[in-house]
Amino acid sequence: MTVNVGDSAPNFTLYDTDKNQVTLDDQKGQNVVLSFFPGAFTGVCTTMACTLNDNSQEYNNLNAKVLAISVDPIFAQQEWKNQNNITYTMLSDFNREVVGLYDVVWENLAGLEGYNTANRAVYIINSVGTVVYKWVAPNPGVEPDYNEIKTTLESL
């Protein structure tokens, strides 16, 4: 299923790095920057994660929180968060259900047959659960326009 601007954001529940379940619908009342990334400990993903972290306080001031999703196990995500001083919530889609739900599966990453991961993507979901911004990378090596993310949040 493709999720587009104007759609209700599909709900999901995933584990965070503290082994707590986080449900998207429980975030209603605030805006969410939903960030998908291919894998922890990779160059572009680290740059994106750190940039979102650097901007997270500004996002918080705009009534928004960052939820980042990858198919990595929570243990890898936790170590990556620690090494990069990332403070926002990371969620593990180890069953690859949410990347399928949002249609952001990147197949055969790095030419590895059958290794499917998340493509790099950003959705902004407003406080009532509607998708108001969507960006999906043409390939996992491309970063989003961080100014567009901020501008969209400022408009809400």
What does this structure look like?
- This protein has a single domain (32-155), classed as Glutaredoxin, CATH 3.40.30.10.
- The protein has four helices and nine strands; from the N terminus they run βββαβαβαββββα.
- By secondary structure, it is of the alpha+beta class.
- The mean pLDDT is 95.
- A seven-stranded mixed sheet has the order 2-1-5-4-3-8-9, with helices on one face.
- The chain has helices spanning 43-61, 74-84, 97-101, 146-155; strands at 13-16, 21-23, 31-36, 64-70, 89-92, 105-106, 117-118, 121-125, 131-136.
- Helix content is 29%, strand content 25%.
- The radius of gyration is 14 Å and the shape is globular.
How would you concisely characterize the structure shown here?
The chain is an alpha+beta fold and 156 residues long. The protein has helices spanning 43-61, 74-84, 97-101, 146-155, and strands at 13-16, 21-23, 31-36, 64-70, 89-92, 105-106, 117-118, 121-125, 131-136.
